[in-house]
Amino acid sequence: MHGRKRTEYKARMSDPKVVAGLQHKAKQWFKLNDELINRGGSSLELIANLLTVNPDPIYLWNRRRTLLGDTIDDLESELKLTQTCLERNPKAYGTWFHRKWCILKAGREESILQRELALCTQFLNLDERNFHCWNYRRFVVGCLCGSMNGEIVFHDEVLFGSQVGGKSSNDCSAFQDKKTHDLLASEVEFTTEKIQQNFSNGSAFHYRSKLLPYLPDIFSLDDELELIHNAIFTEPDDQTAWWYLQFLLEKYHADFDLETEKSLLEELLEAEGGESKWVLLGLYQVLRYMEGMEENQEQILRTLIRIDPDRKIRYE
What we know:
It is a single chain. By secondary structure, this protein is mostly helical. It is 67% helix and 2% strand. It has a two-stranded antiparallel sheet. The two termini are 37 Å apart.
């Protein structure tokens, strides 16, 4: 989970009860692993037990897929296994990939995909910045749009690339129909909800930046700037919203009221004592698109070198 200090982790690892629990887990792991080796690595039950203890080893997931073959007789059991493993470690790469593999083997049934989308929402309510879950959510959306491998394609342009092997998304013409448009618009709304809950949600901002340029009927620069301003005035030292401001400037600077944006950031900089690194960088980005502001930019860079000397070469 995000927001946990390293010192808290170290303190937990020195707790005798935690240490005893880890020792028990290690003994359980080695016992199950020895038993699997004795059976020639061909027991799905033992592999499941091992993964429940520790879902990280990729080789166990690979072995499981080899034993399962081209079809899955009991999809629900397989999904239940991945759910149990994700509850133990929500950032296990192999578990997320195996769940994608299961969904594709099930034929991308819409009822299953809709359920997966709802599960992603529940999961992100617990940890809204888990990029593994955001990535899986995009995979599910890609499949709902007609993709064979999790790609999201619009007018022959790939918004998000393939996440698993297999056919490319050559059947995504459905992307242009109302159903698909509404799905992607609802995804934008979902990112709004997550960003408002936590302005540090880089995954939500990134997803939003990929979708909105292709949904001009719901895109509003004023709304995006309001979202950013709420974020930077709440937590000016958080880099996430500043990255999104830079993205908007690069893509839509011709539509900006640059003078108003400059004044707003100067007001924020003054409120922060004139030496906030991220406010200075944001103001510098705005000035790049304004004429006659070279001296102002140089002054900002000098200030940044003084307050952030570790990155002096970057500013020079």
